[in-house]
Amino acid sequence: MIDRVFSTVVFAAAALVVAALVWVLTDVVSEGAARISWAFLVTEPRDAGRAGGIAPVLVSTLWVLVIALAAALPLGLGVAIWLSEFAPKQRGFAAYTGITLDVLAGIPSIVYGLFGNAFFSVYMGLGYSLLAGGLTLACMILPVFIRTCESGLRQVSDDWRQGAWALGMTRAAAVCHVLLPAARPAILAGLVLGIGRATAETAALLFTSGYVDRMPESPLDSGRVLAVHIFDLSMNVTGGDGAAYGSALVLIVLIVLLNGLAQSLVDNWFKRRISQ
Amino acid sequence: MMAKCLDHLRSKDGRWNASLALLTAGMVALLLTILLFLMSEAWPFLISADTGHGGNRLFTNLLQNPGWYPLEGRFGLAPMILASLAVMLGAILIALPLGLINGIYLEFYASAAFARGFRLLLNLLAGIPSVVFGLWGLTRLVPWITQWQPPGASLLAAILVLSLMILPTIALTSASALASVPRELHTGAIALGLRRTSQIIHIMLPAARSGIVAGTILAAARALGETMAVLMVAGNVVQIPATLFEPVRVLTANMALEMAYAVGEHRASLFASGLLLTLVVWGLSWMAYRLGRHQRKFARHD
What we know:
The complex is a heterodimer. Chain A has helices at 2-35, 38-42, 55-86, 93-105, 109-123, 130-155, 158-166, 171-182, 184-200, 226-236, 241-275, and strands at residues 45-46, 51-52. By secondary structure, chain A is mostly helical. Chain A folds into 2 domains: 1-35; 36-275, MetI-like fold. In chain A, a hairpin with a 4-residue loop joins strand 1 and strand 2 (51-52). Chain A is globular and about 65 Å long. The termini of chain A are far apart. By secondary structure, chain B is mainly α. Chain B has a two-stranded antiparallel ribbon. In chain B, 46% of the residues are buried. Chains A and B meet through helix 1, helix 3, helix 4, helix 5 and helix 6 of A and helix 1, helix 3, helix 4, helix 5 and helix 6 of B.
């Protein structure tokens, strides 16, 4: 009897959650699909975004993402390699770095926005620009990216390291040709997490890359990313809800596409490395 | 020849080691820079003496409530701190029981195929941008609450949207905490002839407790630091809410709203609230880390 009551409660709660989640998803997809067309993607916004498209917003989003990844990827991989291969004991300086990374990962995104504004926009004189926004995002995604890559590299069996050593490879060569390809799933996971966070981020970009919805001409121009566009349309523009749902669907599809792209790029790159 | 070759290899490794260590030191420098800039921007506010009451302005602002009138130099953060806590606690109150039951469902009740689909859905939802949740809350939830109790944009709306956002996290972490309980405990409970409800409530949940609590604390930290979704549905009136249906403004929303035009001491007060928020979130993450470590130890020494 009690078993039956309990399992009914469990199934009801699961059904409730599934229903709520499916409600959100279908709303976004159906409302968004009604707005999306080729013209929506390639034209400039008109009438504060109520009409027209999102072309400059898409371009700004990609700019910010490319800048963030270009800064975070090499730095992050380098630090992860040092932590796992050159300081495997996690003592002294390496232990402090580990704590630092966890502390950095805990900072709320809006606080990264405050920092980005004070450091990149004001102190470095970049103003409200795509570059300032991208660099702020790079700081934000670095800790999680490093941690994921590091744990992936640590999980590679020591047999591989000893094999590389026995073949007379330098540590650098072993990392490039053996260990990184072996840690591919973790690197991919870190990349996907970083892309997801960077593309979805709004709060950190409000006062670093700014609000301007013109087509950016260089990374030093201010530009409005998709997430900020959605925020602005729904909060500050009456009658902007339709376009906001359209942009929301584009944003979700973009995240899914970028994840797929990251997966195939990383796969290709490492396949070449191994077969060389 | 051989020795020369090895020397060459070693020096090459040394250069790699040195340059990568330098990069790593850059991470520590990044954290220090962030702290330095937050502190230096917040400094005018942290040290300024309050002429009216005497003593440090930050503490008088926290303890008394002069109201939030930045243009007149009155920076009462108390209503926003209370609102942040109320939104966080409310979201946890809804999301914890629901998420926990869903974790139990995933671990003990769902068929393999259904569990896989459910996990996929939860992961998908965990990856949806917060601004999209905010948009959905603003256009669906708020009008719905307005029909019931105007004005709609309220503490309740913020709590509901946030609980929907942290639910996937709590469900997935509880499921993995339950999965990491030693199998012997479960088989022992079955061998004792306990009914299924007792197995779960009296054996499995207590054993997975610290992992579940750790996941919940992490979700709470996320709820506290969340900006966009709350900003979009909470109404953003600075006040101490008396009922669930009154609009509130949380700390993060305040920063997002006023950063664009704040100067001088006003700007410093926003950085100070950012610093405060960061310290609280760090405290929560540290608690979650300690509890999580306890759970892992438990799982090893079975």
